[in-house]
C-alpha cells in the first residue's frame, strides 16, 4: 500500500486552500461582524509590539531591557485577554486554524504543480580497495562508540584512525599521509569542521570522500541526503555506493562545506566566556554589537551588489532555502556553482518588526554569487567557518569551486526532501481555475 496513492493532488489541494481561506474570512465576518477588522488590527498590533519589545530587549541593557522584556510578554497576553473579554477568542482561533490550513494546502498545491528539482548526477564506481577513515570518538556525544563505527568499518576493509582526544591532531596531515600511502578513499566520522578539513585534501588529490554522519547536527550529511539517525548506514557506500560531484566553498585559502558566518554571531561565539555561559554572554555582548558600538562595521560585496553595515552575514556553499521556515538551513542542491549570501540589517525596532514580512523585508538581503568579499573597518574580523571560530585578515574573500569534490554516498539513502514553494495566492487561484477549465473542456 503506497503512501502516494493517498497523496493530495495539486488540484484538490488548491481547491481546499481556497475553501479554507474563504472560510477563515467568513468565520470572522459571520461571528464577529464589524468587529472582525478590529480583531485583525489588535492581533497585528500585538505581534508588532512583541517583535519591537524583543528587539529592544536584545539591543539595550539595564532598565530599558527589563521594561522591553516586560512589554514583549505583556503585549500578547493583553491581546488574548481582549479576545476573551469580547467572547470572540474561539472565533479567532478557528479563523487562524483555517488560515494555516489554507496556506499549507496552497503550498502543497504549488509544490505538486512544479516539476521535481533536478538531482545531482551520479554514477556507480568500483568499490574502494584501500579506504582510510578518520573518526572522532567525541563527536555527536560518542556516536563512534555507540554505533560501533570502527568495528563495522574495519569489517568492510577500511583502515580506521581514531583520534586521540587528549591531544590536538592535524587531521589534514593525517589524510595527506594516508593518500601518500595509497589510500583511494578518504572519509570522516565527525563534525562538519573536521569534514571540511579532510574534504579539502580529498579534492586536492582527486580522491572520493565519504561522509559519516557522526557529528551533532550533521548539516552536510543532511544536504547529501544521508541517514542522520544511524551513521553506520553511511558505511554502505564502501560496498554499494554511487559518486556525486559537488561544489566546495573557499574562504581565503580554507575550504568550507557548509557556511561562513560574519557579524554578531561570529563575535559572540569567539568570546572566552561563551563556552561556559552561552545565554549570559550573548545577552551581554549583543547590545553593543547590534547598535554598532562595538565590533567591526562590515561591508559585503557580492558581484554587483553591496550590503552596508549588516549585523549578520551568512555566506554558504550553495544557497540555503529560506522560503520554508521548516527548511531553513537546508540546501536542495550542492552543485549549482554559486555561493548563497544572506545579510540581515536591523538598526531600529521598526526594521525588526518589518522582518515579519519575511523575504520582502528591506533589512533581509538574499543573493547568489560566485565570489563574495567581506571588508571591514578593522584589520581582522571574527568568522565562524563550519562551526569553527576563526579570526581572519580583511578583506575576506569567499569563492566557489564548482564540482571540486567527489563524494561517495550509499546507493540506498533517505535523499534530500524537496522544498515547498512560498505561498502565492495568485498562482493557487490560477491553478484552481485551470483545473476547472480543463474539466469543462472534457465535458464538451
Short structural summary:
The chain has 444 residues and is of the alpha+beta class. It is built from 13 helices and 17 strands. The longest helix is centred in the N-terminal third of the chain and has 25 residues, at 35-59.
Describe the structure.
Helices cover about 40% and strands about 25% of the residues. The chain has about 450 residues and is an alpha+beta fold. The strands form two sheets. Strands 1, 2, 3, 4, 5, 6, 7, 9, 10, 14 and 17 form an eleven-stranded mixed beta sheet that branches. Strands 13-12-11-8-15-16 form a six-stranded antiparallel beta sheet. The protein starts with 9 loop residues before the first helix and ends with a helix.
Topology, pairings included?
Layout: H1 10-32, H2 35-59, H3 62-85, H4 89-113, E1 122-123, E2 131-135, H5 143-146, H6 149-155, E3 159-162, H7 171-180, E4 185-189, H8 192-205, E5 208-212, H9 219-223, E6 241-251, E7 254-256, E8 259-263, H10 264-269, H11 278-290, E9 298-302, E10 305-308, E11 312-317, E12 339-344, H12 349-354, E13 364-369, E14 371-376, E15 380-385, E16 388-393, E17 396-410, H13 425-443
Parallel strand pairs: 2-3, 2-4, 4-5, 5-17
Antiparallel strand pairs: 1-6, 6-7, 6-17, 8-11, 8-15, 9-10, 9-14, 11-12, 12-13, 14-17, 15-16
Helix pairs in contact: 1-4, 1-13, 2-3, 4-13, 7-8
Which blocks of ≥5 consecutive residues have pLDDT under 50?
Answer: 1-6, 436-444
Instruction: Give the distance, in angstroms, between the N- and C-terminal Cα atoms.
Output: 36 Å
**Mean pLDDT score, rounded?**
88
Order of helices and strands: HHHHEEHHEHEHEHEEEHHEEEEHEEEEEH
Please tell me what the overall shape is: globular
SS summary, helix count: 13
* Strand percent estimate: 15-25%
Count every beta strand, where a strand is a DSSP E run of 2 or more residues.
17
The major sheet is characterized as: 11 strands, mixed
